[in-house]
Specification:
Layout (H helix, E strand, L loop, with lengths): L1 H26 L9 H14 L18 H9 L6 H26 L4 H18 L10 H16 L4 H15 L7 H13 L1 H26 L1 H7 L9 H4 L8 H13 L4 H20 L11 H18 L3 E4 L2 E4 H15 L4 H7 L1 H22 L5 E3 L2 H6 L8 H9 L5 H10 L3 E3 L11
Parallel strand pairs: 3-4
Antiparallel strand pairs: 1-2
Helix pairs in contact: 1-5, 1-16, 2-3, 4-5, 4-6, 4-14, 5-14, 6-7, 7-9, 8-9, 8-13, 12-14, 13-14, 14-15
């Protein structure tokens, strides 16, 4: 009976992962804008390829507050695809599968059974493509950075020598050159090392500090002060915002509740130590990151990875366990699988199902793409610099990046500029602000 339940659970999660990720892969070729970051990242790549400064001056109307490596990687990948947006979407969904593999390998190292490690990896794929579809398969480097970071974490966990230990932390530093906000995993790795070998932890900490310092000097030499000015862009801070976004934890909370049940009764182990440190660090980093304006669901991705690892470690144990709730005897493992299946089925975003069963859905997407193409031609015919209300239209029309709405709003809110001064500079540059039809933006029915 237990082995039959394993097969059923794996089959269900394979189906979910295939359906939801299949939809994301299909959407790669649909040119409707998924997020404002898509054109933003594409423009940065095109600026670098054209020889323009990757990091503009502090008073420019555009910004680049990301580290440089993702733009180089996207620039090298771009010739294989239609444009940088499509290339970035491909790298993003590929990264989801790499992170899932890292979850599997981490769980196996922590002595999870193969089927349990596989279930956690499949849960990660299904969760990212079901609940975080605005990021999975979207042109943004966060998942690419997380893929490199989790690869480094796997190397760290499995390290048997100083060389492999240095290799693991070097990969984590490399991930920071792709996206600099993924800090819970390297912090957790360093803390785990401290708990097992304090001398080696101090040695690695010094190595990381020196390496980051040398890289900072190199970046200053290459890009000048503009790099650091852009990276530390003005941003409104609110301590209330994490509370306002607390509902987004619903996607990992069911698994974490069962994990806490497991923590109370499971014997001390490396798995308990690793998952506890990862979950706590990821939760704290998520909440701190959300205090900054413009921070979205990507702040939670380390916590999603940690939760998938928790699932792998607990599911085998819980599948064999009964618990008493009042006068009832509850099959804990079956309850866990049931809750996860219900979450996937009941989430009110029906695109993956509609793509398969609804010809009218596919026809509606085709109609929106036709509207997008007409908007692209309209913008292309406008002479001079243009800022579109839907950025991808300007990008696909071949217009340059000339105005960053979010960054300018943050300068105004933080007192670094006034609305009048920004408007005057935009008028001086002759920037035209064009409203684009909303059909050019991806929206779920």
């Amino acid at each position: 009976m237990f082995h039959q339940r394993q097969s059923i659970a794996l089959g269900i999660f394979i189906a979910f992962a295939a359906l939801f990720s299949g939809f994301i892969i299909w959407r790669i070729g649909v040119p409707l804008q998924i997020d404002v970051n898509e054109a933003w990242n594409g423009w940065q790549v095109d600026r670098w390829l054209s020889g323009a400064p990757l990091y503009p001056e502090a008073n420019a109307l555009i910004i680049n507050n990301y580290p440089p490596l993702s733009f180089y990687l996207l620039g090298f990948t771009r010739p294989t695809f239609e444009n940088a947006i499509v290339a970035g979407r491909f790298l993003s969904i590929a990264s989801v599968f790499v992170i899932a593999l890292a979850s599997y390998l981490s769980a196996r190292h922590l002595r999870a059974e193969r089927w349990a490690a596989g279930l956690g990896a499949l849960w990660f794929i299904a969760t990212m493509t079901r609940f975080f579809g605005e990021y999975a398969g979207m042109n943004d480097p966060n998942l690419l950075a997380l893929a490199v970071m989790t690869t480094g974490f796997v190397v760290f966990l499995r390290s048997q020598s100083r060389y492999s230990l240095y290799m693991g932390f070097s990969l984590m530093i490399l991930a920071g050159l792709i996206k600099h906000n993924i800090v819970a995993i390297p912090f957790s790795a360093l803390l785990l090392l401290w708990l097992s070998n304090r001398g080696r932890a101090i040695e690695i900490a010094l190595y990381c500090a020196v390496t980051v310092g040398l890289l900072s000097l190199a970046l200053f030499e290459i890009y000048g002060a503009a790099f650091f000015q852009q990276l530390m862009m003005a941003r409104e801070i609110s301590l209330i915002r994490p509370l306002e976004r607390i509902g987004r934890l619903q996607f990992v909370l069911p698994v974490l509740i069962f994990w806490m049940i497991w923590l109370r009764s499971a014997a001390p182990s490396q798995a308990k130590r690793v998952t506890s440190i990862l979950v706590i660090a990821s939760f704290v980093v998520n909440e701190l990151a959300l205090t900054g304006a413009g921070v979205a669901n990507n702040a939670q991705f380390e916590l999603v990875f940690a939760t998938g690892l928790c699932l792998s470690m607990i599911v085998g144990d819980l599948q064999r366990r009964l618990a008493s709730i009042g006068q009832m005897r509850v099959d804990v493992g079956l309850a866990l699988i049931g809750v996860m299946v219900a979450r996937f089925l009941l989430w009110p975003a029906f695109d993956p199902y509609l793509l398969v069963i609804s010809p009218s859905y596919r026809a509606d997407i085709a109609e929106k793409v036709a509207i997008l193409q007409s908007e692209i031609e309209r913008v292309r015919a406008i002479p001079g610099p243009v800022n579109c209300s839907i950025r991808s239209v300007c990008y696909l029309a071949g217009k340059d990046f000339v105005f960053d709405d979010f960054a300018m709003s943050q300068r105004i809110k933080t007192g670094h500029a006034t609305e009048a001064s920004i408007r005057a500079e935009a008028d001086r540059l002759g920037i035209q602000f064009v409203t684009i039809r909303e059909e050019a933006r991806w929206r779920s029915p």
